[in-house]
Specification:
Layout lengths: L2 H13 L7 E3 L9 E4 L1 H7 L3 H12 L3 H6 E7 L2 E6 L1 H15 L13 E5 L11 H19 L3 E8 L4 H12 L2 H4 L4 H16 L3 H16 L3 H23 L6 E4 H18 L3 E3 L2 E5 L7 E5 L7 H15 L4 E5 L5 H13 L5 E5 L4 E2 L15 H19 L5 H21 L7 E2 L2 H4 L7 H17 L17 H11 L1 H10 L4 H20 L7 H24 L9
Parallel strand pairs: 5-6, 5-11, 6-7, 11-12, 13-14
Antiparallel strand pairs: 1-2, 2-4, 3-4, 8-9, 9-10
Helix pairs in contact: 2-3, 5-19, 6-16, 6-20, 7-9, 7-10, 9-11, 10-11, 12-13, 15-16, 18-21, 18-22, 19-21, 19-22, 20-21, 21-22
The structure holds one RNA strand of 77 nucleotides.
Length: 567
RNA sequence: GCGCCCGUAGCUCAACUGGAUAGAGUACUUGGCUUCGGACCAAGGGGUUGCAGGUUCAAAUCCUGCCGGGCGCACCA
């Protein structure tokens, strides 16, 4: 059992409290205590003042012999019963736990190995991969890791739309501008640029739109020259996405494609029409969900072509048929909330009574305004990466004049990706991120670089230490500095942070935690010179530093960030 | 018009879901390298939590009404 929850249940047992009434929290200041039991709920039930309850509980608990092993002091502060955890006990238990569990420290079996599918990234072929996708993929990957750490069997998947009208727009424009074929950039990247231009060219261009529609019909017929070009260009995008996933170190268990499920979707639509779940209206086929307060969802256009939901219906069926899922999570931006309510309702009407969850996040915008790939006002993954890299390259070169270019590139690449992921995760998912590139490339304060730097510096200290002190007693009683107690407590809270972040689908709780842990440890670094301590003290301090680096590694791993030994 | 989200220090964000003196980063001012990595650390100023009511021992948090911003509501995905 997790260390702190063990202490809490010991307190509950001793006081013979009901679990629901035991409201634990952590005092805002360390001089008040390490752990706190607030007495408001009890006061209400027992019709006494919370202060008095706290006093009574103190009398009941203060001479308990077992608890004296764990707590050096127990006292009341107004309506709170506050506990000071014995430093020696804390150090011994915690350090041994982290040493034993290593990369598993912080994980829990809560999920009981239930299988959860989580869909994210969801790029469109023949279109840009931009900062919005980066928020999606960073968030999805972090959620995926958090659920894994919480004992779920996670199947990360992606769904790529390779068959929508955007495809025809891009191909239409590609054929009109042979110059795209001659450019040196990756073709998958160029398709995105080509799409943005196509959107501009098709504005107020009815004859162009007709050509695009005709082109789409040909692609949908799955034969002919344009279909062949679709096949080839589709692969360019897929290759490009795979390169991005590899760069970001993100692995999907499976990738679905719209072109592979859309025909099955059309069959489903036919059935639903027969069942009366869908109906014809104004020449189109719709789902009328007015009675559920969900409006109307168009399914098939007047011209007979399929809308997005057709493939989504087939995709959902396939997910549940092929994989034995307990739950299916979709990570898609908040603007599609109504759409997903509609989709889930139709699935329910079809007889799927499965646990479906649409996890939302808000947009990434620019200081200049909302991003839109139609207006061309977007920042692609490539552009963002280049700008951040350039800044980091300057800094790294300046610090390590003697390093060879390959080494510098390796560090810069790592920090660039770490920065992107961290920036995408540190803000609550339901808030808009205004991505100011110039601001984001100043790597001071609450940033990935700060945490990476902290880790690298501790590793440097550990490398310089000599571990020949095997005969020296490991004496955790020597960890008496104020920062040492704070660090131990902070690390003891790590498992709670993970399970909370998982439960609330909130990785920003973890980014904040890791920053605070790094801050505390930097303070410690400046306060105490470890390598110059006496041998007995040095030994336990080095062990403490090792546990700090372990917790940093574990936390960053969940965020999808790899640590650096040197930077 | 209906629905959802946001509004906290100059700026960017936290606040254990109703609890202790609303905290960080940044910017600004000042201090710290003969010292384990200065991408660091310390100190300081900076707040009527958009406004007005209400609920209670207790409200940034819950309820009502306004104000400001964003998004969604039939053939985009």
């Amino acid at each position: 059992m997790v260390f702190l929850s063990e202490l809490k249940s010991k307190i509950i047992q001793t006081l013979e409290l009901e679990t629901e009434l035991a409201a634990f929290s952590y005092p805002p200041q360390s001089n008040l205590g390490d752990l706190s039991l607030s007495c408001f709920a009890l006061a209400k039930i027992r019709h006494q003042s919370p202060e008095k309850i706290a006093q009574e509980l103190l009398v009941k608990i203060k001479n308990n012999l077992e608890l004296k092993k764990y707590f050096s002091t127990i006292k009341t502060v107004g309506p709170y019963l506050n506990f000071f955890i014995s430093s020696e006990y804390l150090a011994t238990r915690l350090i041994k736990t982290i040493q034993r569990e290593k990369n598993d420290y912080g994980t829990s079996p809560t999920g009981q190995n239930q299988r959860v599918m989580i869909e994210y990234s969801n790029g469109n072929t023949h279109k840009e991969y931009h900062v919005g996708h980066l928020r999606n993929i960073s968030y999805g990957d972090a959620i995926s890791h958090l659920l894994t750490a919480s004992g779920y069997q996670v199947l990360p998947v992606s769904y790529i739309n390779d068959f929508g009208i955007h495809v025809a727009k891009t191909i239409w424009n590609w054929q009109r501008h042979p110059v795209y074929n001659e450019r040196p950039e990756p073709k998958g990247y160029l398709l995105g640029r080509c799409y943005a231009q196509a959107s501009q060219l098709l504005k107020d261009n009815p004859s162009g739109k007709l050509e695009v529609t005709a082109l789409m019909k040909e692609i949908e017929s799955r034969q002919g020259k344009n279909y062949q070009f679709w096949q080839a260009s589709r692969q360019w995008s897929i290759d490009y996405f795979n390169a991005i996933y590899q760069e970001l170190n993100i692995k999907f268990a499976h990738i679905f494609y719209e072109s592979e499920v859309v025909n099955e979707g059309l069959k489903i639509v036919k059935n639903l029409l027969a069942q009366g779940i869908l109906k014809k209206s104004q020449g189109a086929i719709i789902a009328d969900l007015e009675q559920y307060d969900l409006g109307v969802l168009p399914v098939i256009r007047t011209d007979g072509t399929a809308l997005y939901v057709v493939a989504d219906l087939a995709l959902a069926s396939e997910k549940f048929q092929k994989y034995n899922l307990k739950q299916s999570i979709y990570i898609v931006d908040v603007r599609q909330s109504l759409y997903f309510k509609q989709l889930f309702k139709i699935l329910e009407l079809m007889g799927y009574h499965k646990k479906l969850l649409h996890l939302t996040y808000d947009f990434v915008t620019l200081p200049s305004g909302m991003m839109s790939s139609r207006s061309g006002n977007i920042i692609t993954y490539q552009e963002l990466k280049d700008k951040i890299s350039a800044q980091l390259l300057l800094e790294t070169k300046q610090r390590h004049a003697g390093w060879n270019p390959a080494k510098i590139t390796k560090v810069v690449n790592n920090l660039t990706l770490a920065t992107i992921k961290f920036e995408m995760l540190k803000v609550n998912a339901h808030k808009i991120i205004t991505f100011d590139i110039t601001e984001s490339t100043k790597f001071d304060g609450y940033t990935a670089c700060y945490i990476q730097y902290t880790y690298a510096r501790w590793r440097s200290v550990l490398r310089k230490s000599v571990w020949t002190d095997l005969l020296i007693k490991t004496d955790y009683q020597k960890l008496t500095a104020k920062q040492e107690k704070l660090l131990l407590l902070k690390m003891a809270k790590y498992p709670e942070i993970i399970s909370e972040a998982a439960q609330k689908y909130n990785p920003s709780a973890l980014t904040k935690y890791l920053f605070e842990l790094a801050q505390l440890s930097n303070d410690y670094y400046h306060e105490v010179n470890i390598l110059k301590s006496s041998p007995v003290i040095k030994k336990v301090r080095l062990i403490l530093v090792r546990t700090i680096t372990q917790v940093l590694v574990n936390g960053l791993d969940i965020l999808g960030i790899k640590v650096l030994e040197k930077m």
